[in-house]
Write a structure and sequence with these properties.
The protein is α/β, with parallel strands linked by helices and 484 residues long. The chain is 48% helix and 15% strand. The strands form seven sheets. The protein has a five-stranded parallel beta sheet with strand order 10-11-12-14-16. Strands 3-4-2-13 form a four-stranded mixed beta sheet, sandwiched between helices. Strands 9-8-22-21 form a four-stranded mixed beta sheet. The longest helix has 22 residues.
């Protein structure tokens, strides 16, 4: 959170000092300069070699430090993302924080039966409608991988369902460059043309390299496509310490940082100044269960460390929070949501996704999106801090009330209590007698009721009919091409 005032107190977290940041930075440069990265894309290989990279063997190239430094300097330090109405919605930079849902969940907890079942297209709509209504969900992730849509089409269909059911920015995935280009066609119709989409981007594409130290042809094709079209891309490695990276956190961070920086170099060589959000995932693999933990303390340590590094670079940073390894909404899920959301906010990561995740990123839960929204409200209030100016110190009021008085009738209380004090929508603050009198409702019951109520009554702002018809036409064409 940016304060700009000596009389404002707000929390933030830092775990690396400048010398430690530089140590990790130089380790990543050594990896890129000595070990190199695998580039499985002929055009990208030629671009790198043409700018001074060297082929070590086969498709492995080493990247000189000056290319990294040039890329850090040329990438935008501040990125404005709009909603579909061309209104500024997020300004990624400084220590501003924004929260949204995640992507690609194959399973969903049914709001009615409470069963964990395959995700359907209706779940994508439900997650979008609920997120559209929530004040602390700033952007919409593509939520699920619907099993009732053919695999070659579900990324395209998910994007269409999202843009039709929310005005908020969309954080989306694509299975291939073909998917991505169809999605950009859909987005261009909504924006009023490709140039307007580039000028007022309301979408962010998520893609990633392959750890350790590899960039696939498909990932690079999508990276190039975004760079050439001026579409913000979130290109972030996802490394497992002990599996696809060194088991030590420092080693895992160094490898993941090398992956992220090599992606940044490629992106900026394709189109200098193109918008990109970066960062790393370096979490631990649970050696007992062979799973990737979303909420391990090691993950949060590396999350804080890379946030320090990318703040030092002055680049927009991706983050993850509002997720749990629990398979169902329970005490574990609540604890891990609170832990991760506060940690990501303290880190100052700009684009924080995964709200609503359960089961290590395999299960979606509509009511947990609402739960995340509640926790985010609490976290945002904490991050806002407090003021130490004369009005807030209230010495005149203290003098007036004096010892033994009370402040309930003071104008100062009326003027400030709504601004100073956060109030929950679902967390209980009732006295025991009142809680019993009102039916002993637990938080999970309130969340499910609210989710069902939003799905019944919330009406997202619709697209113009002509735009909707053009989206349907593009979707029909995509279906025909897939059947051929």
């Amino acid at each position: 959170m940016e304060t700009g005032s000596p009389h404002h107190c707000a929390p933030k977290l830092r775990i690396l000092d400048e010398s430690q940041i530089l140590r990790l930075h130089h380790a990543a440069l050594r990896i890129l300069g000595e070990t190199g990265v695998k580039i499985l894309h002929k055009k990208v290989l030629d671009i790198l070699v043409g700018h001074g990279a060297r082929v070590k063997e086969g498709t492995v190239v080493t990247i000189p430090p000056y290319l990294v430094e040039e890329a850090i300097q040329s990438a935008p330090s501040n990125l404005v993302v709009y909603n579909r109405k061309k209104e500024p919605a997020m300004e990624l930079g400084g220590r501003r924080i924004y929260f949204g849902t995640g992507t690609d969940l194959p399973k969903t907890i049914d709001l009615f039966t409470r069963e964990i079942r395959d995700t359907k297209a209706d779940d994508v709509i439900a997650g979008t409608v609920i997120s559209d209504a929530l004040p602390n969900i700033d952007f919409i992730g593509s939520y699920g991988l619907p099993r009732d849509i053919p695999p070659g089409l579900h990324y395209i269909r998910c994007f269409q369902l999202e843009v039709e059911n929310s005005v908020k920015p969309i954080f989306f995935t694509a299975g291939s460059e073909r998917d991505l280009r169809v999605i950009l066609d859909l987005a261009s119709v909504v924006a009023g043309g490709r140039e307007k989409l580039s000028a007022y981007p309301f979408l962010i594409h998520y893609s990633e390299p392959t750890s350790p130290l590899s960039h696939s042809e498909e990932a690079l094709s999508k990276l190039i496509c975004c760079a050439e079209n001026g579409i913000p891309v979130n290109y972030t490695p996802a490394l497992l310490a002990g599996s696809t990276g060194p088991v030590t956190l420092a080693g895992a961070l160094a490898v993941a940082l090398a992956e992220a920086l090599s992606g940044l170099v490629i992106h900026q060589l394709v189109e200098k100044g193109a918008p990109i959000i970066t960062g790393v995932v370096a979490t631990s693999m649970d050696m007992l269960h062979a799973t990737a933990s979303y909420t391990a303390p090691e993950f949060r340590l590396t999350h804080s460390a890379y946030a320090d590094i990318f703040h030092y670079y002055g680049l927009p940073i991706w983050g993850t929070a509002g997720c749990s390894d629990a398979q169902f909404p329970d005490l574990q899920a609540g604890a891990e949501y609170g832990f991760t959301l506060l940690n990501a906010a303290l880190d100052g990561t700009h684009l924080i996704h995964d709200c609503g995740y359960l089961g290590q990123g395999f299960i979606g839960s509509p009511e947990m999106i609402i739960f995340a929204d509640e926790v985010i409200g609490m976290v945002k209030r904490y991050m806002r801090g407090f003021n130490l100016d004369e009005d807030h110190l209230a010495l005149d009021v203290i003098r007036k009330v004096g010892p033994g008085g009370h402040y309930l009738a003071e104008k100062h209380t009326l003027d400030f209590f709504m601004k100073e004090h956060w109030r929950p929508a679902f967390f209980n603050r009732e006295s025991l007698p009142n809680w019993v009198k009102k039916g002993k409702k637990k938080v999970d019951e309130k969340l499910i009721h609210r989710a069902l109520d939003l799905l019944k009554h919330h009406r997202p702002e619709p697209l113009p009919q002509a735009v909707k018809e053009e989206l349907d036409r593009i979707w029909s064409e995509a279906q025909k091409k897939t059947r051929r």
